[in-house]
Specification:
The complex is a heterodimer of chains A (81) and B (552).
Chain A lengths: L26 H5 L4 H4 L11 H24 L7
Chain B lengths: L5 H20 L12 H4 L8 H12 L2 H14 L6 H12 L2 H12 L4 H9 L2 H32 L7 H22 L2 H28 L2 H15 L15 H15 L3 H8 L4 H10 L1 H19 L18 H9 L2 H39 L5 H25 L5 H13 L2 H4 L10 H21 L14 E3 L10 E3 H22 L40
Antiparallel strand pairs in B: 1-2
Helix pairs in contact in B: 1-9, 1-10, 1-17, 3-10, 3-13, 3-14, 3-17, 4-8, 4-15, 4-17, 5-12, 5-15, 6-14, 7-8, 8-17, 8-18, 8-19, 9-18, 10-15, 10-17, 11-15, 12-19, 13-17, 15-16, 17-18, 19-22, 21-22
Chain lengths: 81, 552
């Protein structure tokens, strides 16, 4: 139930050090959605949605893509050594 | 009057009772032999995997407030209400790494609350008390907000009485049931119910966004109808389907500030600490934005309500309108009764899940950082669990009292005040995870400065719509600071910046005066520990002390 099996030694190599240059990518989905010049307009409309709405909804995709990418690239048994 | 809504009431009540049964059964779900431990009652055994955490944290962050208050704000103010979308986008990349550190250090030391961490990190029970009290105070209106959600639904179904007691009776009953199963099952109850809540919400929203635009002439005409309404009613200069030059700064600072605040709330941290390992947290931070999409679509229900010509039901005072009822009324008008009943149940259950988690988080804060710290030093784990259970009941009674005695006109404002308050714990909790540079005394000084300024600013803000002179919102006009502009800014951002500034200056002063900064109870290594580490959640002695001896 709780994290049992304490037999397995938690050596330093099994621990993720959080430092990775890929982490800087996380700033993209933090900064971009907070710049009103990009989204604060009516045209062009997509499926009737003014740009204000469809672009901000599209930023969700930007956020998901970036965090997923960083997660994959910094996974312990992956790119991080 | 309620007879017209009989089908809705039956569907609503049936689903409501179904999840109540689930709440009671949850005590046995993934349960250990011994439930009399705060790790079990308050954190579900710290064992939740990816899916459960997703539903639990999602069910926790996207609440009845989402369903009711955000579309109400969009209905009333337009683009400004859409701030919830960028807010829930920027939050996840921001806390992606921070929460992993918090998880690691908490599991190594058996921390249950953010104040536990602060206690150990800065060697200061006083600072921990400040963080704990702030957390409890900020959580109370948030729980009350959930009740506003249920109330809006009940009102639309015509379940209202003349006297104050009769009007609130259904909520009191609902909360009594909630209190009972939370008492019995702890965090397992909302974790299990969250599955039902989210399934209902996803179904309702998918149907609503596919079906309603067809009925209302397409998305284009929905936005046009909203624009026409904002043009016609010119009394509010800041509404419209786009932002104007004066409220863009408010929009951005509100989104950013709310995002900073979200994971400082004790209940969000509770959901995170209940997960099994760091991987679960990281995967969730990339998957949780799926809820943001739903949130964006829900927000647009506000425009659909405009296009459908919805008139909100009257408020508690004569002549006022209860904006929170726009979505329930929209469903009542546009959908068959049985489906409206399902939608109402989604809102009602959507209030129960977060209310349960919030009351558990507040109860944990009281138990760990007030009861154990100041009242009974040698409390056993079983006593801790018991105190938490009882406190969670008290917290819920308090929230119900808030609703019965306060006017929940613009419930979103209550939460915005809570956001300003909780933001003041940012330097100690969030920055504390990265640096011990700040002095414990300086953190208290910064907290006091930020809190004082934040409250003063909120007090200055009137709300013309509700005719209130104070605490009318979170948009502070920069002209009040002497700037020659009509722009407004989110109070929380200003308050937390002042907080940081004061904390930095006082730190330098205290250092110069060589005031003792205490001993750090954590080691750098603690912040990277993961599941499988021999010292993560140690078995029998896992609870030991609020500030256990850092093992060499």
């Amino acid at each position: 139930m709780t994290a049992s099996e304490p037999e397995e030694p938690g050596s330093a190599s099994s621990r993720a050090k959080d430092h990775s240059p890929w982490n800087w990518l996380l700033f993209v989905p933090i900064v971009v959605p907070l710049i009103p010049v990009f989204f604060n307009a009516d045209a062009p409309r997509v499926f009737g949605f003014p740009r204000f709405y469809w672009l901000q909804l599209a930023y969700i995709l930007l956020g998901v893509t970036t965090t997923t990418l960083v997660y994959r690239l910094t996974k312990r048994r992956g790119g991080d050594r | 009057m309620w007879r017209d809504h009989l089908t809705e009431i039956i569907v609503f009540t049936t689903l409501f009772l179904l999840v109540s049964v689930m709440g009671f059964v949850a005590a046995r779900w993934r349960a250990p032999r011994d439930m009399a431990h705060l790790d079990e009652w308050g954190l579900g055994g710290r064992s939740f995997g990816g899916w459960i955490t997703w539903f639990l944290v999602g069910g926790d962050l996207y609440t009845a407030y989402t369903f009711v208050a955000v579309p109400a704000l969009v209905f009333g103010a337009g683009a400004m209400g859409f701030f919830a979308v960028p807010y829930t986008i920027v939050i996840y990349p921001m806390v992606f790494l921070v929460l992993c550190r918090l998880w690691s250090v908490s599991h190594r030391h058996g921390f249950v609350t953010p104040a536990d961490f602060v206690r150990s990190r800065f060697d200061s029970p006083v600072l921990a008390l400040v963080v704990a009290v702030t957390g409890i105070v900020a959580t109370m209106p948030y729980i009350a907000l959930q009740l506003v959600g249920i109330e809006a639904v009940l009102k639309t179904m015509g379940v209202t009485g003349e006297s104050a007691l009769a009007r609130h009776l259904p909520i009191i009953i609902a909360f009594a049931i909630l209190a009972a199963y939370t008492y019995q099952s702890g965090l397992r109850a909302p974790a299990l119910i969250a599955f039902v809540k989210d399934t209902l919400i996803y179904v309702v929203i998918l149907v609503a966004v596919l079906w309603l635009p067809q009925k209302l002439g397409g998305w284009g005409s929905i936005f046009d109808a909203a624009e026409a309404k904002f043009q016609a009613t010119a009394q509010n200069p800041n509404d419209g389907i786009l932002l104007n030059a004066n409220n863009q700064l408010q929009y951005v600072t509100l989104a950013f500030g709310s995002a900073l605040a979200l994971f400082l709330y004790p209940h969000s941290i509770t959901g995170v600490l209940a997960s099994r390992n760091r991987d679960v947290i990281k995967r969730n931070m990339s998957a949780l934005p799926a809820y943001s999409l739903v949130l964006g679509l829900i927000a647009l229900l506000g425009y659909m309500a405009i296009a459908a010509g919805v008139k909100p039901l009257p408020g508690s005072t004569p002549g006022s309108a209860d904006a929170n009822t726009v979505v329930p009324v929209l469903f009542d008008q546009q959908f068959p009764d049985w489906f409206a009943g399902v939608a109402y149940a989604a809102i009602g259950i959507g209030a129960l899940v977060p209310a349960a988690i919030m009351s558990i988080a507040a109860a944990n804060l009281f138990t760990r950082n007030i009861y154990k710290e100041y009242l009974k030093r040698d409390a056993s784990p079983a006593q801790e669990a018991n105190v938490s259970k009882i406190t969670s009941l008290v917290v819920k009674v308090g929230a119900v009292a808030c609703i019965v005695f306060l006017d929940p006109q613009f419930s979103i404002d209550l939460q915005l005040i809570g956001g300003v308050i909780i933001l003041q714990t940012l330097p100690a909790v969030a920055l504390g995870l990265y640096t011990r540079w700040f002095h414990r005394g300086a953190l208290i000084a910064g907290w006091a400065a930020g809190m004082g300024l934040g409250m003063w600013m909120l007090y200055q803000i009137p709300n013309p719509a509700t005719k209130r002179a104070h605490f009318g919102g979170s948009a502070f006009p920069l002209s009040d600071f002497g700037f020659d502009t009509k722009k407004t800014i989110y109070v929380g951002i200003v308050a937390v910046l002042v907080n940081l500034l004061v904390a930095a200056l006082v730190t330098l002063a205290l250092r110069a005066a060589k005031v003792d900064a205490g001993r750090d109870g954590t080691t750098p290594d603690d912040y990277f520990a993961d599941e499988g580490d021999p010292r993560v959640t140690p078995g029998p002695a896992r609870d030991a002390d609020a500030a256990p001896e850092p093992v060499a």
